[in-house]
Amino acid sequence: MSFVRSLLFSTPLIAISSIVLGIVSIIVSFADRTGNAAHQVARLWGKTLLAVSFIRVSASGVERLDPKGTYIFVANHASLMDIPAVLSRLPQQFRFFAKKGLYGIPFLGWHLRRTGHMPVDRSNARNSLKSMNEAGRIIAERQVCMLLFPEGGRSPHGLREFREGAAYLAIKAGVPVVPIAIIGMRELLPMGSIHIRSGKVSLLVGEPIPTSHLKPSDRAQLTERLHDEVRALLDKPQAVA
User: Fold this and answer.
1) How far apart are CA 160 and CA 234, in angstroms?
2) Which structural domain, as residue segments, surrounds residue 189?
3) Percentages helix, strand, coil for the chain, rounded to the nearest 5?
4) How far apart are CA 36 and CA 55, in angstroms?
5) Does any domain span residue 161?
6) I need a surface site. Which of 44, 55, 134, 152 has the fewest CB within 10 A?
């Protein structure tokens, strides 16, 4: 029954919501070139996707964040629903890196391009580094937050090694980096599945880690610390609520 609901109810509504709100985000982006208004539309999109999927997300630790602060958010990545979960609960405006190929997808690509998200070519190390340096400059100048999944993609199980890009970016921009754990989403929409199960998910926000005193050569050490912090949040002995 859960699969039938997912196939006949949740999935069509997700598609419709993505198209409609994608168009709205593009329209509002012409009036607000900062991308802030479009981000509010994206937040509504995230909440809508969770609602039609009967997924409830609770957040803990958000009070650690300065509402006016600039951060690099670093989270584990296990499900396509991770971004809606973060959008629905983090009060900060943020942007994220998206694979270059996503920019060719109608509505999604148009939204990404118009609202200030940053393309990254993961197949080319030089272009990827160039994207990181440009993002560091933009973050420092515009005081905009970024969300990264340093595992480099969705993980079917456990927590994979972190790539150093998030740490490098935080150090380059001189802003605090915040570890985030998304708990329970993998069980509701596993990698490779189209069966969206209803349930509860927790989003845990860790302590911001300052980077203003660090150098790019410290990125490996910071990356290891971020991995340890996210793992500790994932291993917290608390029920998903």
Assistant:
1) 13
2) 55-98+117-234
3) 50, 15, 35
4) 26
5) yes
6) 134
CATH of residue 161: 3.40.1130.10
CA distances from 23 to 116, 134, 160 (A): 16, 28, 35
Separation between Cα atoms, residue 205 and residue 92, nearest integer Å: 13
As given in the structure block, the two tokens for residue 120 are: 């990254």
* Contacts (Cβ under 8 Å, ≥6 apart) of 87: 42, 43, 45, 46, 47
Per the domain annotation, does 105 fall within a domain? Answer: no
Helices and strands per DSSP (H, E), number in the chain: 9, 7
CA–chain centroid gap for 41, Å, is: 15
Spatial separation of the C-alpha atoms in residues 201 and 186, rounded to whole Å: 9
CB atoms within 10 A of CB 200: 15
Locus of tokens 């670093």: 74
pTM of the model: 0.90
Number of separate domains in the chain: 1
Residue pLDDT, tens place only, 53-98: 999 999 999 999 998 899 999 999 999 999 999 999 999 989 887 7
User: What is the tens place of the pLDDT at every residue in 217-231?
Assistant: 999 999 999 999 999
Specify the pairing of strand 177-183 against strand 199-205.
antiparallel
Rounded-to-integer distance, Cα 12 and Cα 27, Å: 23
